[in-house]
Amino acid sequence: MNHIIVRKKTLSKENFLIEIKAPHVAERFQPGQFVIIRISETGERIPLTVADVNRGAKTITLIFQAVGRTTMELSTLNEGDPVLNCVGPLGNPSEIKKFGQVACVGGGTGIACIYPLVQALAKAGNEVTAIIGARNESLLILEKEMKAAATKTLIATDDGSKGHHGFVTEVLHKTIEAHRNSGGISRVITIGPVPMMKAAAEVTRPYKIPTIASLNTIMVDGTGMCGSCRAYIDGVMKLACIDGPEFDAHKVDFDDVLSRMEMFKVKEKQAVEHYQKITLEKE
Amino acid sequence: MKKKRIDLGGYRVQMQEQSPEKRIKNFQSVPLGYSQEEVVKEAKRCLQCKGIPCELDCPINMKILEMIREIAIENFEKAFFIIKEDNPIPAITGRVCPQEAQCEGVCPLYQRGHGINIGKLEAFVADWARLKGTKEKFQIKEKQQKVAVIGSGPAGISCAVDLRKFGYQVTMFEALHKAGGVLQYGIPAFRLPTEIVDYEISYLDEIGVDIRLDFFVGQNIKFSELRKEYDAIFIGTGAGAPLFMNIPGENLKGVYSANEFLIRVNLMKAYAFPKFDTPIVCGETIGVIGAGNVAMDAARCALRLGVEQVYILYRRTKKEAPARDEEIQHALEEGIVLKELISPNKFIGDDKGWLKEVELFNMELGDADASGRPRPIKIEGSEFILKMGTIVEALGSRPNRLFLDKAPELEVNKWGQIKVNNNLMTQIPGVYAGGDAVRGNATVILALGDGRQAAASIHKQIGSSRQSILKWE
Question: Taking the model in full, what pTM does it have?
Answer without folding.
Answer: 0.94
